[in-house]
């Protein structure tokens, strides 16, 4: 009926569109974070994938044998364990950033801001706090990753794979990690925009609620 139509109208507002964009960006952060974590390592992980990886990396890493193979496995495992806490933290943040706008979309569809206009001010405050908090979170993310890439485990792993002619095991940020940082900046900007839209909508709702009193 008319109530359902009014609820659906929220999905066409600027605030809802911005929130849906936040959901998409947060989902991409979650994906990039999971890619950054990766599997347990190159020597033990890639051969199991088969197909193009098997042939691209020389018949399932045929260059490794004996002590070299054991060393590669150990370095892969050490490197993986060093990155795992960072990847899990990034995935947790991405999950929270995904749930938050979903909840706000539901709140908007249920017309809570219309019945309780003060909610929009709370929403604005939450947006600003999260946007500001994104800056130290991104610093911690990249600082921790660079510490891992500067570790002895990563350096030894890089040298070992290069000695066998394998590429792609450099001690530097990969594309998924750079993308996660860029998407984090996008989230911060989107949240600041949503904060401004929440203040604008608060003024609009407040004015509309005052109109019957003026009559």
TrEMBL record:
Keywords: Membrane, Transmembrane, Transmembrane helix. Signal peptide: none annotated. It comes from the Eukaryota. It is a multi-pass membrane protein. It is found in: Membrane. Its main location: membrane. Residues 10-203 form the MARVEL domain. The chain crosses the membrane at residues 21-43, 86-107, 119-142, 178-199. GO terms for cellular component: membrane. This is MALD3 protein. It comes from Dryoscopus gambensis.
């Amino acid at each position: 009926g008319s109530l359902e139509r009014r609820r659906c109208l929220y999905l066409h507002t600027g605030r809802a569109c911005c929130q849906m964009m936040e959901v998409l960006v947060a989902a991409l952060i979650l994906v990039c974070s999971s890619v950054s974590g990766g599997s347990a390592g190159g020597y033990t992980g890639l051969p199991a994938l088969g197909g193009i990886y098997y042939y691209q990396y020389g018949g399932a890493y045929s260059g490794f044998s004996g002590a070299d193979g054991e060393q590669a496995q150990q370095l892969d495992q050490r490197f993986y364990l060093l990155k795992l806490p960072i990847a899990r933290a990034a995935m947790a943040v991405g999950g929270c950033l995904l749930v938050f706008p979903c909840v706000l979309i539901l709140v908007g569809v249920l017309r809570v801001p219309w019945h309780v206009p003060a909610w929009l001010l709370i929403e604005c405050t939450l947006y600003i706090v999260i946007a500001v908090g994104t800056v130290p979170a991104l610093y911690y993310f990249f600082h921790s990753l660079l510490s891992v890439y500067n570790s002895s485990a990563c350096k030894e792993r890089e040298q070992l794979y290069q000695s066998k002619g394998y590429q792609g095991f450099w001690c530097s940020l990969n594309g998924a990690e750079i993308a996660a940082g860029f998407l984090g900046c996008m989230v911060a900007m989107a949240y600041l925009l949503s904060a401004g839209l929440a203040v604008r909508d608060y003024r609009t709702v407040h004015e509309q609620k005052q109109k019957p009193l003026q009559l």
